[in-house]
Write a structure and sequence with these properties.
It is found in: Membrane. The protein has two domains: about 50 residues, no CATH class; about 80 residues. It is built from eight helices and no strands. The protein is about 55% helix and about 0% strand.
């Protein structure tokens, strides 16, 4: 028995065929393939036996890499180290002080840095949403605060790296 098969000679699974078909659908939706070429390549993907057969179907459809979105201040400049530190502190100080700490940072440092103001406002909105949830559920929503602490630390790390962070599923009361 010879076990020296090349990787391209290995037989493909249905999951591998499906991922190639998904890539072809994406390319068709982007306008990179016309209808006839899409039909032909889809048929070839569905009948492919080996990885070499599949590889030839998407070789010219390499996706365009999307640049990672970095935060910029209102004047187009990236945030300074001090801005990143203050934005990170706005998220981290929310753990012991709820919305009061981020609100103070938003009012004091938000005037000179749009980045700090946006991140502090996000922390204020997150903490206000948690507070309202706790009040509406008569205290039962307080269990969510354990998750909130972890999420606040993750947001602080994002802000420290200079990236924007948006909490999911919150009321954005403060703009």
């Amino acid at each position: 028995m010879d076990s020296s098969y090349a990787v391209g000679d290995l037989r493909v699974s249905d999951a591998e065929r499906e991922s190639v078909i998904q890539r072809l659908q994406d390319a068709y939706a982007e306008g990179r393939l016309d209808h006839e070429e899409f039909d032909l390549r889809t048929h070839l993907a569905m009948t492919a036996k080996t990885r070499n057969d599949l590889g030839g179907l998407t070789y010219d459809l390499v996706p365009v890499p999307q640049p990672r979105r970095k935060a910029v201040s209102w004047d187009g400049e990236p945030p300074t180290g001090e801005d990143r530190m203050l934005a990170s502190a706005a998220h981290a100080v929310a753990v012991p002080t709820l919305f009061v700490g981020p609100l103070v940072l938003m009012l004091l440092s938000g005037k000179r840095s749009e980045y700090v103001r946006r991140q502090a406002a996000e922390a204020v909105n997150f903490q206000l949403t948690l507070l309202l949830l706790t009040i509406v559920t008569f205290g039962i929503g307080g269990i969510v605060y354990a998750v909130a602490w972890v999420l606040s630390i993750v947001a602080a790390v994002y802000a420290l790296a200079g990236n924007t962070f948006r909490y999911p599923w919150i009321l954005r009361l403060v703009k």
